Amino acid sequence: MAGQAGQPILIREHAGWNKNCEAIAHPALYLSEPPRHGQICARIENIKISSMFVGTQPQCIGRLVRGVRLIYRPDAAYAGDDNLRYAAQYPSVLRGVQVQVTVSANAADAPSALPSNNIIIPTAQARQAPGPVPDCAEPIF
C-alpha cells in the first residue's frame, strides 16, 4: 500500500455476503502488530466486491455490500515505510494479513508543504496497542 504524508491510506476492505449478494456481518478486525509510525482504524461503509475467497459467491463480484475498510493514518510529518499485521475473523476462518505501507513525502511545491525554512520537530505519539481495531472517529474519504 502507498499514499501521501498527512493523508489516510486505505489498507484493505473486508465483507461477507450470502448467495443473494446481500451483506452478512462483516469480519471483526484484530491488530496483532501495530504500525510504528501511524494509527489504524476501521470504518463501516458500502464497498464494491472485487475479489472472493473459498466459500463465497462469485456471482457477487462487482456488487455493493456493507463491509469494513481498514485505514492507516501516518503520524504527522512521517514519510517512509511502516509495517503492520492484523487478522480478519470470518465465520469459518481467521485470516492473518501482513501489510507494508509506504508513505511518500509531500512534493516541495505542494500547497500543503511547509516552507523549507520551517523546522518540524516531531512530537512523541503513543503507539497503538494490539487488540480489536477501533472505529475511525470521523469520515475518512
Short structural description:
With 141 residues, the chain is mainly beta. It has strands at 2-4, 9-14, 16-17, 23-24, 28-33, 38-48, 64-74, 80-89, 94-104, 131-132.
How does this model look, in words?
With 141 residues, the protein is an all-beta fold. The protein has a single domain, classed as Immunoglobulin-like (Sandwich), CATH 2.60.40. The protein has a five-stranded mixed β-sheet, with no helix packed on it. Strands 2-7-6 form a three-stranded antiparallel β-sheet, with no helix packed on it.
Secondary-structure blueprint of this entry?
Elements (H helix, E strand, L loop, with lengths): L1 E3 L4 E6 L1 E2 L5 E2 L3 E6 L4 E11 L15 E11 L5 E10 L4 E11 L26 E2 L9
Parallel strand pairs: 1-9
Antiparallel strand pairs: 2-7, 3-4, 5-8, 5-10, 6-7, 8-9
First-residue to last-residue Cα separation: 16 Å
Kindly provide the radius of gyration, computed on alpha-carbon positions and rounded to a whole number of angstroms. 17 Å
Helix and strand run? EEEEEEEEEE
CATH architecture: Sandwich
Give the fraction of residues assigned to helices.
under 10%
Key attributes of the depicted protein:
141 residues, mainly beta, Immunoglobulin-like, five-stranded mixed sheet, three-stranded antiparallel sheet, 45% strand
